[in-house]
Specification:
Layout (H helix, E strand, L loop, with lengths): L1 H26 L7 H21 L2 H29 L4
Amino acid sequence: MTEIIGWASSLVLIVTIVKQVYKQWKEGRSGGVSKYLYAGQIVASLGFAVYSYLVGNWVFIFTNSIMVLNGIAGFLINSHLKKRESNGEL
């Protein structure tokens, strides 16, 4: 039961965060989101993934690894959109 709660919570978190980054990409605007939010997410999630590996918690290894990838995608999308906004393309 404990594992089910962990995996279900992981799924909810991942879907929620990935959906937000996808929305930002689809709408083609950064929506006032700072690139530092994504940088912080990458660093924190990487740290949590390493910690989770060290304590052997596969739910959090998986979740935080996905969050690192999502943070990288969000950072790149945000940077691309901010550049287009500053060039007057959007």
